């Protein structure tokens, strides 16, 4: 399911206009992204959680040349499925 399909499903199930559904979906995604950018964890009980992992700087290698390269510290978003979602998918 992509964003347009999600908007369409919301439009149908909530009986609202497509533009209203698009606005709701956009507000939802923007709020999640903003919270994660602020370092907060986003948890939707029974479904999933999103959080940010921080990685320290380390020395890696350029695969083409074999040259040592310093990798800068970074933050990456992660997704973790909830128990109910795992059980539902596994049926």
What does this structure look like?
This protein has three helices and five strands. Helices cover 43% and strands 30% of the residues. The chain has one domain (3-89): Irregular (HU Protein, Chain A). The strands form two sheets. It has a three-stranded antiparallel beta sheet. It has a two-stranded antiparallel ribbon with strand order 3-4. It is elongated, with a radius of gyration of 19 Å.
Provide a brief overview of the structure.
The protein is an alpha+beta fold and 91 residues long. The protein has helices at 3-14, 18-37, 83-89, and strands at residues 42-44, 48-55, 58-61, 68-71, 74-81. 1% of the residues are buried.
Low-confidence stretches: none
Give the radius of gyration.
19 Å
Work out the strand percent: 25-35%
What structural category arises from helix and sheet content?
alpha+beta
State the name of the first-level CATH class. Answer: Few Secondary Structures
**What spatial order of strands do you see in the largest sheet?**
1-2-5
Overall average residue pLDDT: 95
- Termini Cα gap: 19 Å
The helix content, as a percent range, equals 40-55%
**Looking at CATH, which topology would you report?**
HU Protein, Chain A
Count of discrete domains: 1
Determine the CATH superfamily. Answer: IHF-like DNA-binding proteins
